Amino acid sequence: MRARVQAELERHTLEEQLRTAQRLESIGRLAGGIAHDFNNLISVVLAYTGFILAEVPDDDRLVEDLLEIRSAGERAARLIRQLLAFSRDQVLAPSTVHINHLLQQTRKAMTRILGDAIVLEMSMGEEMAPILAEPNQLEHVLINLVVNARDAMPHGGVLSIATQVSTLDRHQGAVVGLPAGDYVTLVFRDNGVGMDARTMSRIFDPFFTTKPVDKGSGLGLAAVFATLKQCRGAIDVQSEPGQGTTFTLYFPVARVDPGAWKREQHSQEDGRSQAPASPEDGARQATVLVVEDAAHLLQSQCQTLSNAGYFVFAASSSTEAQLLCESHPQAIDLLITSGRHSGVNALVLIERLRQTQPNMGAMVLVDYPADPVLRESIDRAGQICLTQAVQGQDLLAQVRELLRREVQGGRRE
User: Fold this and answer.
1) Does residue 340 register a pLDDT over 70?
2) Helix (H/G/I), strand (E/B), else coil: 245
3) pTM for the whole thing?
4) Does residue 190 contact residue 239 with C-beta atoms inside 8 Å?
5) What are the residue ranges spanned by the domains of the chain?
């Protein structure tokens, strides 16, 4: 009898999880499409705001207005990241992450968000195994949960954060929708106002919020939920009105050499990691080809690179790019292009251009990868950098890093 009840409970839990996943999937596709177009527009706004700020004297009366525009644009960009995370279409670059180290890095920011009325307590497990995640996305998860806890304790309180490694058996895993195994768990516990069952049933729905219209988008916890799914983890919530709320996040333990991750973790904690060398050390001035069929993005990217001192060629189609590569007498060091344009995907374009520019590096900027086969093909091809679509200083930083790797690899003069 007991086993039958347990099996029925597990079946009911799995059915509810399936219905939730289907509902979120359909809304996610819509959110991803909106975020893609919005991201292109806001990238141009931020790029040109930066161009003007670089030219305007510090004491000009326009500076304050321009800074407000940039601030609003950056807030919009953060909202886009949440939409893309929720839609599961954000390009992630997962790496080995030590959750304790990330918490230490973000502790100051979390304390600032919580304010003086809320005490932050941390209890971090020893010899924690690493997880496989995208560090920036994981940091957004931490911040979203801290903001949620702060809003649940308007009159002050205590937020405790704890980490440990847990082993889930089959029944425990079924409750949260995970297979049995070892998981790094991250627990956020507050003593705030808590939630009733009706609210708890909707907290991961996009655009659902109990906050006033101008105080929350309803995307914070939806983005947290989506990020955990991308990491093949899960999130569980326990709460009652007046009794506070506990969020428990489960991340699969990354299967890496134990000695390697311990050495890496100790190196990070001791501050012994070396800063990368200057990206342009030993390299001649680079020539960059930008291929983009969206005219406003093409112009802003070229101007950003040109202002930084690169020699820049622009092409609005694959045909135009081929003609440029064939006619250019010197080597083109780097191609920057979006994931798909004019019906030719990036991998095909790169193969064509390398027929005349065999040593050309390639950076593919993607914010809404509608074709997952493209991502897998690029990963297999090698020597191609697939990265989140960025603008301004972020774009320049990624270009410098890629060119630095090309120099170290001996592919450039």
Assistant:
1) no
2) strand
3) 0.48
4) no
5) 2-87, 95-270, 287-408
Token pair listed for 46: 């931020």
CATH no. for 95-270? 3.30.565.10
pLDDT in tens, 283-331: 447 889 999 887 778 888 888 888 888 888 888 888 888 888 887 767 8
Q: So what's the architecture of 287-408 in CATH?
A: 3-Layer(aba) Sandwich (3.40)
Count of Cβ atoms closer than 10 Å to residue 272 Cβ? 8
If we measure between CA atoms, which residue out of 339, 365, 394, 374 comes closest to residue 136?
A: 394
233: nearest Cα among 295, 272, 283, 177 = 177
- CATH architecture, range 2-87: Orthogonal Bundle (1.10)
Euclidean distance between the first and final Cα of the chain, in Å? Answer: 75
Helices (H), 56-163: 62-87, 99-114, 135-152
What secondary structure letter does DSSP report for 193? -
**Spatial distance between the Cα atoms of 399 and 286, rounded to a whole number of angstroms:** 10
Q: Find out whether 163 and 184 touch, Cβ atoms under 8 Å.
A: yes
